[in-house]
Design goal:
rod-shaped; about 0% strand; 3 helices; about 70 residues; mainly alpha
């Protein structure tokens, strides 16, 4: 998934959790929020890596990040 896809997935999960919270247990809701948080964190990591990609392209880690976020 790309950073924007992770962001959209986080929003989707949160929307679904909010719409269906009363039909499920609090544990289900907490798991949904945790999954959304993972996607949001990955979106943030991708956005940060993309922002700095031009600075890092000459390093092995930079090339790995460029490949990971593409």
């Amino acid at each position: 998934m790309t950073g924007p896809q992770h962001y959209r997935e986080a929003e989707h999960i949160l929307d679904h959790a909010e719409e269906n919270a009363l039909e499920h247990s609090s544990e289900w809701y907490a798991n949904a929020v945790a999954a959304a948080q993972v996607h949001a964190t990955l979106a943030l990591a991708a956005a940060t890596a993309e922002q700095h990609a031009t600075e890092w392209t000459g390093t092995p880690a930079g090339r790995e990040w460029a490949a990971a976020i593409s």
